[in-house]
Each structure stands twice: as C-alpha cells, then as structure tokens.
Amino acid sequence: MPHTADWKKLSFSSILLIGLCLPAASEQTAFAATSKSKAAATSEDEKQCLPHCRSNFVCIKGECVSECNPPCSDSESCKEGECVAKHHRHTSSGDEQRTAAAPEQEAKPTNNDKRSRTEPSMPPGAKVNSRKHDGFYLRMSFGFGALLGTWSPASSSTDNLVGLTEHYELALGGTPIPGLVIGGGLFGVIAGSPMYGFTTRGVNINIAGGSIYSEIIGPFVDVYPKPSRGFHFMAALGPAGISESSGGTERLCYRNPPGCESVSTPSTPYSGVGVGFVAGVGYEAFVADHWSIGGIVRIMYTYGNLSPNNRSEPDAALSSFTPGLMFGATFQ
Q1: Which of 182, 194, 154, 171 is nearest to 321 (CA)?
Q2: CA 206, CA 250: separation in Å to the nearest integer?
Q3: Is 314 a member of any domain?
Q4: What is the span of the domain harbouring residue 75?
Q5: In DSSP terms, which residues pair with 204 in a beta bridge?
Q6: What CATH number has the domain bearing residue 287?
Q7: Each residue of 33-84: pLDDT tens digit?
Q8: Reduced to 3 states, what is the DSSP secondary structure of residue 214?
Q9: pLDDT at position 97 over 60
Q10: Is 228 within a domain?
Q11: Whole-number Å distance between alpha carbons of 169 and 154
Q12: What digits encode the pLDDT tens for the residues 222-279?
C-alpha cells in the first residue's frame, strides 16, 4: 500500500486540477449560453426583417441599420463593422479625356440637334425641295397671238389693222434676291399680211398689206412671289423698232358715181423708231435642277412714227396692240 504522504499529495493535486477546470467550464458554458441567446435573438430579429438585410446591415427591432455605429461619413463605407475609405476606380488618360470632353459635347449641341429644334420633322423618304428661282436667268419663248392696231398716213384717213401674229422673246438677267429677276431682253412680234380696213365713198374695204415687225429692246423685271414655285409676272419697257413692208395694190371701181381708183397698203416700205412696253403673267414647272418650262399670257404695245423708204409717200403713224400666248423654257 502507498504511503500516507503519497495519498495526500495525490489528493491535493486532484483538488487543484478540479479547481482549475471548474472556472473554465463555467466560462465555456456561459459563452455557449450567451451565443445561443444572441443567435436566438438574431434569428428572431431576422424573422422580423423580410426580406433579409443586405451585407453590412443588421436587423434591429425589425429595421435594417448599418453595422457601424456611429454611421460612416459620405467618403467612407461600412465593412464588417468598420468605416473604411471608399475606393475610386482608376481611369486612364484616355478615359479622363473622354470624361472631360463629354460635358462639352453635351453643352454644345450638334448641327443636327439645332436643325431638329428649328426645323419640323419630315416623314421618312421625303426630299427637300432645293429647286428655286435664284441666280443667273435665261428665258427663251415663242408663241402666237393677234394684232389690233391703226395705220395713219398724214394725207389720208386712218386704217384699222387686224391680223395674226408670231411672238418671240429672249431675256437675260440675274437675281439679286430669290424670286426677283432683273435684266434686259428682246421682245418681238411679227404680223404677216394683216388686213387694212378703211372706208372710201361709203364702202368698207379690206385689203391685205405687207408684214409688220415690232421689236422692243430694254430692261425687264420678272417676279416669282414664291421662289420655289412657278407662278410669276413680268414687265418690260424700252425703245421699239418698227418696220412695215410694202403691201398689195388693188384697183377699186364704183357705180355711183362711176369711177375707179388704185389703193395700196402701203405702196412702199416704212420704218421708224418708237416706244413700247410688255406685260405678262404665267406659270412654269421645274423639269430639272435649273430648267423649267411653262406658258405665259403676254401683251405688247408699240407706237412709232414711220417714214417711207422712197420719200415719195407721206409719213405715217403705226399703233399696234398684240396679245399672245407663249411657251418657253427658263434656265435658272
């Protein structure tokens, strides 16, 4: 059997060991109980916050609050209960240039943006009409009409003139503002063999005469109220050159009193200078970017004192009014 002293030593060691283990066991038991209570409380709080709080937030009394207390500043974020500085994404020099240029691009609208704010939107496929009456002007026209006038030799009665006419026109000009044409032109009329009507011994006589040529050279204006449209009106004024070829000669015989006489209309060519004007209104349509065709109703009036070529006949005055319908082409 062991000695009594050894039993005493063994008993003391056992008591000391038990004394050391009991506090640790009690602390472990208390920590486990505390953890269970916290887990139970957390589980109970999480049941009150549905859906569950996102990371770095906890549920306290049914509300999600930050894990950091006090809350972090705007330049910090809460990570695992601690406030840490926010990380900025590193940008390259190219990104910085694009970022710096972006506000300028937003501040300065493009031409397309300006047009979209100032011009009405157009349906897809619509073409902007770029044709208009502007710039250099060239017009060539030809047509037909009538002659109404008078022939007044100094030594005889006035004869009435009636006939058919041909009209022509050549005009050149420019456009100081869209729709307004200013220039110079040649405007002419040819009356082939008009009828001279007169009265002799109480009888009305009509005799075919020689051709009459009337031309006006002078300035003109042509106005398009809407430059992109075809309606226009024009006017011209200037000196007129007039010539008349010799006509036929007829022998007239009368019963009461009996007798005969020769009548000519006129017997020799005449020529002279006078004055005249032209006015017209018409419409034309574009057939190409710079070419348009159309018609115009035109009137031309001339008056002049004419002299015979052989100087054996008296001077005469010729007045002619010639309306006509013309068709032409315009380059502009």
Answers
A1: 194
A2: 10
A3: yes
A4: 49-83
A5: 199
A6: 2.40.160.20
A7: 555 555 555 555 555 777 778 888 888 877 888 888 888 887 888 887 788 8
A8: strand
A9: no
A10: yes
A11: 32
A12: 999 999 899 999 999 999 999 999 877 777 777 777 777 777 678 889 999 999 999 9
The Cα–Cα gap between 186 and 141 comes to 11
Backbone φ, ψ for residue 33 (5° rounding):
-70, -40
- Separation in Å, CA 258 to CA 119, 201, 253, 261, 275: 86, 11, 7, 11, 44
Please report the pLDDT score of residue 321 as a whole number. 96
Q: Do residues 260 and 289 lie in contact, with contact meaning Cβ atoms separated by under 8 Å?
A: no
Quote the longest CA-to-CA distance of the chain.
205
pLDDT of residue 70: 81
Cis omega (within 30 of 0) for bond into 70 = yes
Which two structure tokens, joined as six digits, stand for 91?
A: 């940008």
DSSP 191: E
Whether 68 is in a domain gets the answer yes
Q: Do 203 and 319 belong together in one domain?
A: yes
Amino acid, res. 325: L
Does this model's pTM top 0.70?
Answer: no
Query: Which has the higher per-residue pLDDT, 247 or 170?
Result: 170
Cα-Cα-Cα-Cα dihedral sign, residues 224, 225, 227, 230 = negative
pLDDT tens for 314-324 read: 899 999 999 99
Amino acid at 18: I
Residues 184 and 301 both lie in one domain: yes
| CA pair distance 52, 59, nearest whole angstrom | 8
226 and 321 part of one domain: yes
Q: Considering its fold, how many domains does the chain have in total?
A: 2
